[in-house]
Every structure is written in structure tokens, then in C-alpha cells.
């Protein structure tokens, strides 16, 4: 039997490279999938592709009212919300801190951090009504160390870690588990196209060749981990952080021919 039969999953940023992969993966495992995003055209197309067990809802993660409407739509369509995937996120154009304007700082934190805070705040009552469930917040390996020229993004992802652990402590007795995934460099438009205001994409100056697994990650790599963390197989896991980066944070791997 599919792992998510009769369960409903809300995925934010659901039309992006990782988000669409997550939506398809949950759907393939039997879930009802609610695709939350600001891109109505792509969201509606993905929902049509998936069929009757999928819905698109326009969701601005920085707006509490938009969150309330999305959760209501999910419950109205499918009767419950069992899983929340806080996947929506944006990258800042690279710049040193002294040249990063406050509007950029505020926008990145509004989407990447406040968006997750509001998601948890609004979705928790629905998860309680469903007798529990799981929340996974998608962070980044940049939330595990400093990265020059990406201060807003780094700060937002570090903060997601503390928010996740706090939520895990608060919600465990309600049978709601909260965990974090830290992807490395994943082959999506997020890293293959320049961020707004940038002239180069991350992929233009990053090569996976020196690392233990010398390839870019694929969205499906992250989706498979996500399915595990939100399933009953992970029922004793909460407040935990999962790095999926092919060894990026380990540093360059010494190759046998150089030994």
C-alpha cells in the first residue's frame, strides 16, 4: 500500500524544481497534494497533470491571510492536512554585507523565515485536527556555515534551524514532528539561473568534481529523503537536521591517484 494513502500534503513553492518534485513524489505514494505557490499558471498546470488528488492554491507565504486560505482550501478539498512541507525560498543576489540593501535583507527573511513561521503558526491547528502529522522545513547547507556575499540567505537558513527545533519541542505532545532538510547544490533553476539582480548563477562558479559524490544533487534525491521523514517510518524522529549534499560540507575528497 502506498505510504501516504488518505493523507493530505501541502507543499509550498510547489511549482519550483524541488517543490514540483516533492508534489509528484507524494502523489505517486498515494497522497492528496495541495500545491501552494504564487505562480498560478504553473501551479494549475501541475495540478492538472497530477489529476483529481491534486489542487493548486495561490499562496503568498509572507501573508498570514493567504496561509489561512490555503489551509482552509486543503481541508475543504480533502478533509485534513497531515503534512506541511515548507519548501518556498528565494536567494539574494551576491553582495558583501556593506553593499546589501535593507530591502533585499527584509525580502529574503520575509520569504525564507517568516514564511515558515507563518506556515507553522497557521497549519498547526489543522494538523491537530488530523490527530498529528509532520512538518519539514527545507533549509540549506548555507544554514550550517557562513558563505561570503549571501548574508540574507545564510541568516534566514540559520534561523530556520532554531525555529524548527523550537517547534519540535512545542508540538511533540500533539503528535506533530518537525524536522529540517539541508540540501546542498541541487540541479534546479534556483542554482542554474541567476537570482533576481544577479549576473551569474551559482552553477556558473560551482563544480562538484572535488567532492565525495562528484555530481549535482537531483530534486528526486531530496524528495526521497522528504518522503521518509514525513512517513510513519520516521515516527521517532523530531527536531533533527538532515544534510543531503554529496559530501559538500566535508570538503574536497582526496583522490586515490594522489595518495
Structure, explained:
The structure is a single chain. It is built from 7 helices and 7 strands, in the order βαβαβαβαβαβααβ. Helix 1 (about 15-30) packs across helix 7 (about 220-230). A 7-stranded parallel sheet has the order 3-2-1-4-5-6-7, sandwiched between helices. The chain is globular. The longest helix has 28 residues, at about 100-130. The protein is an alpha/beta fold and about 260 residues long. It has a single domain (about 10-245), classed as NAD(P)-binding Rossmann-like Domain (Rossmann fold, 3-Layer(aba) Sandwich), CATH 3.40.50.720.
List keywords for this structure.
259 residues; alpha/beta; 7 strands; 39% helix; 15% strand; 3-alpha-hydroxysteroid dehydrogenase; Sc_DH/Rdtase_CS; oxidoreductase
List the helices and strands and how they pair.
Blueprint lengths: L7 E5 L4 H12 L3 E6 L2 H11 L3 E5 L5 H15 L4 E4 L15 H28 L3 E6 L12 H21 L4 E8 L5 H4 L26 H11 L11 E4 L15
Parallel strand pairs: 1-2, 1-4, 2-3, 4-5, 5-6, 6-7
Helix pairs in contact: 1-7, 3-4, 4-5
Question: What would you say about this model in short?
Answer:
It contains 7 helices and 7 strands; from the N terminus they run E-H-E-H-E-H-E-H-E-H-E-H-H-E.
Task: Please state the overall shape, judged from the principal axes of the Cα atoms.
Answer: globular
Q: Which structural class best describes the helix and strand composition?
A: alpha/beta
The order of strands across the largest sheet is 3-2-1-4-5-6-7
* Highest-level CATH class: Alpha Beta
CATH topology: Rossmann fold
- Strand tally, please? 7
Total count of helical runs of at least 4 residues: 7
InterPro entries: NAD(P)-bd_dom_sf (IPR036291), Sc_DH/Rdtase_CS (IPR020904), SDR_fam (IPR002347)
Region (Disordered): 1-21
Family: Belongs to the short-chain dehydrogenases/reductases (SDR) family.
Protein name: 3-alpha-hydroxysteroid dehydrogenase
